[in-house]
Amino acid sequence: MSQHSQYDHPDESEWRDQRWEDDHSTYPQTQSNDIFMTLDKDQKNKWAKAPTDTERKRQERRANLKKETESYFNGKKLMPFMGIFMIPNNNISIDQVIGTEEQKLNEIRVQSKCFIWYQDNVDYCNGFPIFENSLLTFRRYKVIKVAGDTKESVSIATARVKNLYLTFHNRPKRPVILHLLDQPSEIFKICLTQLPSGFETLSIPPEGLSYFILKKIVNVVHDLVDLGEGELSGRLPTNRELPPQVLRLNKRNTNLLEQEMNATLERIRPFNYAIRFKIRFGQFCMVCDPDPEKEYSIKAMAYKHFTGDNFIAELVPCVAKKEASIKPFKEFIDKYCPDTLVDIPRETFVFEVKQQLEFVQPSKMVQAGVSEKFPTRITCSFKSDGYVELWDCVMDEMKLMSANIVNLDRNYAWELRLDAAKPVPHHRLDAAKVVPSPSPHSKFANGLRLNKNNKLIYENSKELSVKSITWKTKWLHYWSERNYVIEICREKIWDEKLSKEKAIGLVVNLAQEPNKEIYRISMYKQDWKNRFAMNLNLGVGMAPGWTIHDFLHTNEENAAQLISDAREFADILTKNLPRYWEENIA
After folding, report:
1. Domain residue spans in the chain?
2. Nearest CA to 577 among 381, 412, 464, 444?
3. The pTM is what?
4. Computed over its alpha carbons, how large is the radius of gyration of the chain?
5. 344 CB contacts (<8 Å, ≥6 apart)?
6. What is the pLDDT averaged over residues 217-228?
7. In 3D, which of 462, 433, 465, 500 has the Cα closest to residue 368?
8. Contact yes or no for 466/459 (Cβ under 8 A)
9. 141 contacts 90 by C-beta, under 8 angstroms
10. Which residues pair with 402 in a beta bridge?
11. Are the beta carbons of 143 and 86 closer than 8 angstroms?
12. Which CATH architecture has domain 49-169?
């Protein structure tokens, strides 16, 4: 068992950002909930029977448990064991750490059975409290104190309080971006070329700039002297002729990747976010205004341009735009990786929507005004009868880390990508009556239909509007030699012709041509998904069972092995999947 598994708890985490930390008692109740509560109360008064001895004892136990639980909310108390956490940053608001009205501490209090309280401006010197009339130099701290009956409970509660601070303090402010040039096997120059016709980009570059891709130019020496023995004057140089700094690229890339992955995983470890880690394949594109005649050395590109503050580049993950382009590779992978996952292909629909998260009843909409709408993503799958089977909703999507690795000996670059998104609860609870109220995304998902004529039926409302719909079809193969899942994903995207009308029964005909269709190829380990799944069930201040060691310091999983595995699969793609703009399909 991991050293952190003692913190695991199945309850849903209380982590919310500031807009979720309001006093929910101000939200109005729906009429149906009021009726339900009234009927329930009347039934108890008219039809309730006298409780049996078993029921009476159960009620007494509940009353005692409630009394004990509430006792931990009543400030501080002298106990046999005590723990102290000093908040290093005095400039932050304590509510950002422990929540409004200490709501984040309440879960820790109840589960650890400890008294926890906050004190401001406590005088400490080198970590020890200062006594009255002391002449020692001191510093004032914000501290959180923990007191309990056992050393173990205090230790766990103090660790969870510390994790509360780390969760706030380590929240990523910007993604970690790495651009790395894989160590080549020969010496060459690099030039920048404009995108070929039909090339698919992710976005429009900034004004005045353009997308470019890298192209290698092999240096061929035309020697007029006869070298004899059949030796060619234009031979390719050997590894011995590569400059020393170029020969150190593999080691440098491994060290940089390990360093940044270590820091990123450490920051996000206590987060109860939906986290995804994949290796994606595609084309490496630069955004710049270059000199088209200029040539760059390997050393200059790797050590200077790729590390520059103003360098802008990204991996474009599109590997095909037509079924005919990807079909030969799918036939190859069926033979090369014959093991497939169950329920293949898997189909899901992704809705990019804007919705009100602080919603009110329609009857109160005029008085309350229209709330701000936030971008959220709803993903769902359908049953054979056309009703939704599973769905989820996330917001605040963020790119945590992107490590792009370019190898100009191969047709495909790769990107190690770590993303996160915040799960949005399906319902909101009213603090006054503890009755779940349906959220806009819950009502939207439950109203979706996929009929037998391949038509998707959805609705727009005052609280939620759909911006794009993506139909994803995934083929998953198991690469047993390297223990990876190979994912081929077709995306059909509708965004330009979607109705902006606020109405029910809006239809998208999936048989019609989408606005865009692309194919992506990526790979991941099932162990990665299993580890990050632990983060979805974290309670307040808890840490998951996985550690950084699992990702970076084992024989099977480490930075060098990650690069090697990605390079090997890039070889497979280079040999078996022509670049889509170069193909000649009749």
Report:
1. 49-169, 176-576
2. 412
3. 0.81
4. 30
5. 474, 475, 476
6. 50
7. 462
8. no
9. yes
10. 177, 417
11. yes
12. 2-Layer Sandwich (3.30)
